[in-house]
Design goal:
- There is one protein chain.
- The protein has 470 residues and is of the alpha+beta class.
- It folds into three domains: 154 residues, no CATH class; 175 residues, L,D-transpeptidase catalytic domain-like (Beta Barrel), CATH 2.40.440.10; 60 residues, no CATH class.
- Helix content is 37%, strand content 17%.
- The protein has 16 helices and 17 strands.
- Strands 3-4-5-14-12-11-6-15 form an eight-stranded mixed barrel. It has a four-stranded antiparallel β-sheet with strand order 7-10-8-9. A two-stranded antiparallel ribbon has the order 1-2.
- Helix 2 packs across helix 6, helix 3 packs parallel to helix 7 and helix 9 packs antiparallel against helix 11.
Length: 470
């Protein structure tokens, strides 16, 4: 009988040594790994709060949450993102090994790797994969803040929340994003290729370029705060569309053609608040126009100022005799010690009214006497500011609720040629945007990449474009 016990003990040792790792063993290894100095503090916080329990793995495999996560990563293709960015070769190797592994350390490593991927994906899907400041484009819009705590969302998955629901919460709630994503779904559907080929979108841009253009605009929309929310009235200028839209709630109540900055003096993308407008505006020349256009003209003809109803002022705004200035001795690096201001009138490029939303780029919307430019299809002719075709009508609309400014009063003010400031009752959000694809289905809108922004963003996203990219 005595010989049976050593055999029994050996059998127990073999059985237990071949057992799959327990959740506690995996948790102990996760805790050890999170103590590494290079560990992301937000990831450590998640596991501390969940008592280091594995989120994605079970013994020798993945749990249902991980399987749902992998399926949701497949769906990122419709957001213009690549699953391979979040399922690396290292993770694939760990995943392959785990199927036969009894090592809790490997299970812990895979769980942490999936969580790292989730946090990276969450940020990319929520606020964008690349930083616009690194692309070399005129993007001055403040970076969108994350709309969720990614660590808390990971914990919610650990607590049983649906992975797909979390992905949907991370996506921008912008209406334009949802429309464009649905259009990409249709573009990537192999059964829809023949139908898409018959679509007159296709007259200007080939299929692969259009898909890349959609992906670029989805990325751009991830950078942007939601400019479609209906709670506030707003003014939207879409640069490559050459149009201004005045939106009240969910309704676009006014549109106008606009002229935007040329290739060398691009209108930047930014947001500001319109607080007032000015009838019969004077025009104080900005530095760029001063040095590149006006001073050379004065050097050629000193009477240029008088012919164009311009005055030289000191910084106390007292008039200076322009004939006493040695124009030929002026140098850019030494600066110009005066202001040049053009009086209101038919020669003034600001026309009858300008709309002011103070910003560091000295950009505003204004009327123009050069109405012929609005008949052009591409309207990149300004020095950065936005010229508006129906400016006077827009002023009347903005002031229609005012007791002091009816149409007669506006006409009277514009007729006396005196500069007059009118404050709005409430500030209006002004969004200067750059969207080259929006809408979906039969309502899809495509615009030319007039500032080469799409190409630069596509390059940053490692998207290929043809030489004929529109």
């Amino acid at each position: 009988m005595s010989c049976k016990y050593p055999y029994f003990i050996l059998l127990l040792f073999i059985v237990f040594s071949c057992q799959n790792p327990s959740e506690n063993q995996i948790a102990e290894n996760i805790e050890a790994l999170t103590q590494a100095p290079e560990m992301d503090s937000s990831l450590t916080r998640v596991y501390v709060e969940s008592e280091f329990k594995p989120i994605w793995v079970k013994a020798q495999g993945l749990n249902k949450k991980a399987e749902d996560f992998l399926a949701a990563l497949d769906g990122l293709v419709y957001d213009g993102l690549d699953k391979s960015d979040y399922l690396t070769e290292e993770q694939s190797r760990l995943l392959e090994n785990i199927l036969d592994s009894e090592d809790p350390a490997e299970h812990a490593a895979l769980d942490l790797a999936f969580s790292k991927s989730f946090l990276a994906m969450a940020s990319d899907l929520n606020i964008g994969k690349i930083n616009p400041e690194t692309t070399g484009i005129e993007w001055k819009m403040d970076q969108k803040s994350p709309t969720a705590d990614y660590g808390e969302m990971l914990l919610s998955i650990a607590d049983g929340n649906s992975v797909e629901d979390v992905f949907d919460q991370l996506r921008p709630q912008n209406v334009r994003y949802r429309e464009l994503r649905e259009f990409l779904v249709s573009m990537l559907d192999p059964t829809a290729e023949e139908a898409q080929g018959a679509n007159s979108l296709e007259e200007k841009i080939n299929r692969s370029d259009l898909i890349a253009k959609i992906k670029v605009n989805l990325e751009r929309l991830r950078w942007l705060p939601d400019f479609t929310e209906p709670e506030t009235d707003k003014i939207i200028v879409n640069i490559p569309d050459f149009h201004l839209f005045y939106v009240e709630g969910e309704d676009t109540v006014f549109t106008s053609k606009v002229v935007v900055g040329n290739e060398y003096r691009q209108t930047p993308v930014f947001k500001a608040e319109m607080g007032y407008l000015v009838f019969n505006p004077t025009w104080t020349l900005p530095e760029t126009i001063l040095w590149e256009d006006v001073i050379p003209s004065i050097q050629d003809d000193v009477d240029y100022l008088e012919k164009n109803d311009m005055k030289v002022l000191d910084y106390q705004e007292k008039e200076v005799d322009y004939r006493e200035i040695d124009w030929d001795e002026l140098e850019t690096d030494k600066g110009f010690p005066y202001l040049i201001r053009q009086s209101p009138g038919t020669a003034n490029p600001l026309g009858s009214v300008k709309f002011m939303f103070p910003n560091e780029y000295s950009i505003y919307i204004h009327d123009t006497p050069a109405k012929g430019l609005f008949s052009r299809e591409e309207r990149t002719f300004s020095s950065g500011c936005i010229r508006m075709e129906n400016a006077v009508q827009f002023a009347e609309l903005l002031l229609e609720e005012s007791d002091d400014w009816d149409t007669d009063k506006i006409n009277e003010s514009m007729g006396d040629q005196e500069e007059t400031r009118v404050d709005l009752d409430e500030d209006l959000d002004v969004w200067i945007l750059y969207l080259t694809v929006w809408g979906g289905g039969e309502d899809i809108q495509i615009r030319e990449d007039v500032y080469d922004m799409d190409r630069k963003i596509a390059q940053a996203l490692n998207l290929s474009l043809s030489e004929d990219f529109f």
